[in-house]
Write a structure and sequence with these properties.
239 residues, 74% helix, mainly alpha
Length: 239
């Protein structure tokens, strides 16, 4: 039994690694294609006009709020929410699968972001940047990818484990947080629109791969709701 479980875990891990490499390869290909036009500063999908429009409409108030919004997608904010999510789900479900799911999502996102940014090396928009000393290049947006993976992943977990209509309320931050981060990063002149779109492509593919392979809510279906009651009724009938 343990041997079979180990083999199954190994197959899942190998599948995750293989899909991660494939997704990263796709993202690098997209980035390299974008770099063909004006060294990455062309006007594909508004890459030139949209950052300049935001820069022309900056105000002290909007700049202040953009900084607050942007910080929510930074490493520290993402780390705090990820850690709290893991602790809460481990305490409530007494299962490691949700923790593994969050860890795979976030470490996979971080690794992909660093690898793609290092290979593509896209310059940031040619406007005044409100953030300084950023260690990576523009493509893709790490803020956007991390925020999308985290809050959509959280919604997947809550909807899978919880019961009741309120669980669907977690779809609100899954939508609002990425939109807020996207606007803030564009406003601050740190990313082109295609950087944001590429991050959404990555997050969508990575979330799908991790969810399909890890099945983070599989145990939740067995613990609460109808499937569990059916199992008990079957056991009672057999007894």
């Amino acid at each position: 039994m343990d041997h079979e479980r180990g083999r199954r875990t190994g197959r899942i891990a190998a599948g995750i690694v293989a899909l991660w490499v494939l997704i990263v390869g796709v993202l690098i290909g997209i980035g390299k294609l974008i770099m063909i036009s004006h060294n990455g500063n062309g006007n594909l999908l508004g890459d030139h006009t949209i950052p300049h429009w935001f820069a022309a409409h900056r105000t002290p108030t909007l700049t202040h709020w953009s900084q607050i919004a942007s910080s929510l997608g930074a490493t520290q904010g993402i780390l705090i929410v990820s850690a709290v999510t893991c602790v809460v789900f481990l305490a409530v479900t007494r299962r490691w699968r949700p923790v593994i799911f969050v860890a795979v999502l976030m470490f996979g996102e971080l690794g992909a972001f660093l690898a793609v940014a290092a290979v593509v090396k896209r310059p940031r928009p040619d406007v005044h940047h409100l953030d300084t000393n950023l260690p990576t290049s523009a493509f893709p947006s790490g803020h956007m990818a991390a925020t999308t993976c985290l809050y959509v992943g959280l919604a997947i977990l809550v909807i899978g484990y919880a019961r009741g209509w309120w669980r669907y309320l977690f779809l609100i931050p899954a939508i609002v947080m990425p939109v807020m981060i996207a606007v803030a990063r564009l406003y601050r002149g740190e990313h082109h629109p295609t950087d944001i779109l590429a991050s959404l492509v990555f997050a969508g593919l990575w979330l799908t791969a991790a969810t399909k392979l890890i099945k983070p809510s599989e145990a939740g279906t067995a613990r609460g709701g109808r499937p569990l009651r059916r199992n008990r009724e079957t056991a009672s009938a057999a007894g």
